[in-house]
C-alpha cells in the first residue's frame, strides 16, 4: 500500500473498497460464522423458514463496522508509514519488521474502535434459530415472534449484551485483538511482497484491478490460515450467550470464556482438525472479500490520481 496519496484519500478508498466487498460477500460471512459457532446443522432450516433474509442478518451493522474499521486502519497505516519513511521516498521499501509493526499498531487501533459492532454483528448472525423439525410450516414459523425464530434487532442485541456483562461485554474477546491484529498486518505485507516480486514497471506502483484482486486474495488466504484457530476462538467467545454454551463438553461451571480455554475445549472435543472447522469457507470468503476490497481500493485511487492530473493539465492550459 505504498501510495503517494494523502492518508485521508487512502482511508476513504480503503473503507469504500472494504464495504463493497463486505456487502457482496455477506451471505458467505453469515454461513462461515454459523459453521464456526457449530450451528451449521440449523442452516438448512433457517433458509427454508426465512428464505434468503436469514443470510443478511446484521448486514447494516457489519457494513458500518467495516467502513469505520477500514477507515481507521488505512488512515493510521498511511499516517504511521509516512512517519517511518520520513526522509525517504513516499514509496520507499521499509524493513519487514517496520511494515509488520505499522500494520499491527493500525490493526489494534481499528479493532479497539469497532469491536462492539463486531460482537453485535456476530450475535445477530447466530441469534436466529429454528427449533421446529417441521420446516414446511412457513405460516407457523413466520407468525412466531420469539427471539429464537426472528432476527434480533440492533437495540435488542445491545440490551442483551449489556444485561449479561455490562459495558465490558461489548469488548468480549478483545484480548485476541493483540494477536489477530497480525492478520491485516500480514495480509498487507504479503500484498506488498506480491507487488515487489510478481509485478513489474508501472504495474508495481499502481496494480491493475485484476492484479490487486489476485494479490489481495493470496495474501489474505495465507494470513487467515496462519491465524485461523484464534479467529475461530474469537467467534465462539463473541457468539456465546450467558444462557447457552458453544456446544463444547461442560468441564466446569459456566464462566467467562477465554481464548486458551476455548482452544483447549475445541481440541478436547474434536482434536487438531477441530481447530480448523470452517477454514475452507473462511478462505473462500476471504479470497472474494479481500480481493474485491483491494481491487476497488486501487481503482478508486487510480481515478483520484487521474482526476488530479486532468485538473492540473486544464489549469496549465488556462
Describe the structure.
With 318 residues, the protein is mainly alpha-helical. The protein folds into two domains: 1-128 and 153-172, no CATH class; 181-246 and 254-317, no CATH class. The protein is 71% helix and 0% strand. The protein contains twelve helices and no strands. The radius of gyration is 21 Å and the shape is globular. The protein starts with 6 loop residues before the first helix and ends with a helix. Residues 130-149 and 243-248 have low confidence and may be disordered.
List keywords for this structure.
2 domains; 318 residues; 0% strand; globular; mainly alpha; single chain
Q: Strand-and-helix sequence, N→C?
A: HHHHHHHHHHHH
Q: What is the residue-mean pLDDT, rounded to a whole number? A: 77
**What's the end-to-end separation, in Å?**
34 Å
Low-confidence stretches are 130-149, 243-248
What is the secondary structure topology, with strand pairs?
Blueprint lengths: L6 H30 L6 H8 L8 H26 L11 H32 L10 H6 L10 H12 L11 H4 L1 H17 L3 H4 L3 H31 L19 H16 L4 H39 L1
Task: Write a short abstract of this structure.
One of its GO terms (cellular component) is membrane. It is built from 12 helices and no strands.
